[in-house]
Specification:
Length: about 260
């Protein structure tokens, strides 16, 4: 499973609006000719981080570092600044520095959901699955996390990597309870059910996946196997044709073994 299997949840703010508000505030004077009160540290940090997110969103990595460092010079314990700096270092292929800033973010706020989400994804991408599971289990405890269904799906994928299929199944089911439009959870549950011999459940989850997402070599091969359990030869032939025509060089096209 590659890092792209993890869907990361990142919120981009309204950079232009914030900067406009700050510029307008800087132009206002009191009726007695005095200067306005200086912006609070929180407002200054927010403005810098909004600017940095805009740069990151547009892949201007070198430019993004400057406002993040400015934010940290104002507030060295800004969790959001450390998370953004970790993401920046990830994008620049510097995992050592990325991990340093994830750890700092969680040092200052152990329960910060955005830090936990991104750190769990980072650890998964580094193939440190046990550590990833530990972080993601902490994340899903936050009932108010805005992307909790995705967090459960990510946890399920990590649980599979460490051989915890029952925990993985529970995580995928919870993901679908929170948001039924999670096709990856449906796919993994179909695979788990097929492997466990529950072919009716496997078909139900597979059909749910199929209506929500595109087919891949893996999913077409699984479709063939599930179709075989109900002796649906037409469906088997349809999946086989799609697999061979769309993905002729894939390992599945060459080695998809359908039990007889």
């Amino acid at each position: 499973m590659n890092k792209q299997g993890f869907l990361l949840c990142r919120t981009w703010r309204w950079v232009g609006l914030v900067i406009w508000v700050l510029l307008m505030a800087g132009c206002i004077t009191t009726s007695t000719g005095g200067l306005p009160a200086p912006a609070s540290d929180a407002i200054r940090v927010k403005a810098q981080l909004d600017l940095a997110r805009g740069y990151l969103e547009n892949r201007h990595l070198e430019r993004a570092r400057v406002p993040i460092n400015r934010a940290l010079s104002i507030d060295s314990k800004s969790v959001e600044a450390h998370v953004l700096l970790a993401l920046l270092n990830e994008a620049e292929s510097d995992p050592v520095l990325a991990e340093k800033h994830y750890e700092l973010a969680l040092k200052y706020d152990r329960a910060n959901s955005q830090a936990l989400n991104n750190y769990g994804s980072f650890l998964y991408g580094q193939e440190r699955y046990l550590e990833s599971v530990d972080v993601l289990r902490r994340l899903v405890r936050d009932a108010d996390y805005h992307a909790r269904s995705q967090a459960y799906e990510n946890l399920g994928l990590a649980e599979l990597k460490i051989g915890e299929s029952e925990r993985a199944e529970g995580a995928f089911l919870r993901s679908l309870q929170l948001n039924f439009t999670q096709p990856r959870s449906s796919l993994e549950l179909a695979d788990i059910a097929y492997t466990g011999g529950d072919f009716v459940k496997a078909r139900d989850f597979y059909d749910s996946f199929r209506t929500q997402s595109r087919q891949t070599p893996r999913t077409l091969c699984l479709g063939m196997k599930i179709a075989q359990t109900s002796h649906n030869t037409d469906e088997m032939a349809s999946y086989a044709l799609a697999l061979n025509n769309l993905f002729p060089e894939s390992a599945e096209a060459k080695n998809c073994e359908v039990p007889r």
